[in-house]
């Protein structure tokens, strides 16, 4: 597991720090790990790309892909509402009114029990994911399993 965000811009590092803080405030005593995966974790992120497809201008930018590992299971509706609140707080604290030109945030949540089970079964997404740990209370436990 990586723990460095040195390959990211200062703005992206600040964004991820803010997102991590909001997650920890929303899930006090329930959050075990926050893991960045996807293009921002690997350094292959697209900050902004614009082109014309079939004569129509389109644009693309990478999103922040974040796996939140919790100490217990949450109902999908409950965790979904927490994610919406975190995203709204993020844009509010950044003072962003038009989110069109800012990275979106994609959350996945798993309990530590389900994550360990998936790793034991060598499920590709969990076992082979490129990880950057943003927060952890149990890195050694997970790290020894990978």
Notes on the structure:
The protein is an alpha+beta fold and 146 residues long. 40% of the residues lie in helices and 25% in strands. The protein contains six helices and six strands; from the N terminus they run αβαβββαβααβα. It has helices at residues 10-26, 39-42, 76-94, 112-120, 124-127, 139-143; strands at 31-37, 49-53, 56-60, 64-70, 105-111, 132-136. The strands form two sheets. A four-stranded mixed sheet has the order 5-4-1-6. Strands 2-3 form a two-stranded antiparallel sheet. A hairpin with a 2-residue loop joins strand 2 and strand 3 (56-60). The longest helix is centred in the middle third of the chain and has 19 residues, at 76-94. It is globular. Residues 138-146 have low confidence and may be disordered.
Trace the largest sheet across and list its strands.
5-4-1-6
Looking at how many chains there are and whether they match, the oligomeric state comes to single chain
Largest sheet: 4 strands, mixed
Number of strands: 6
Based on secondary structure, the structural category is alpha+beta
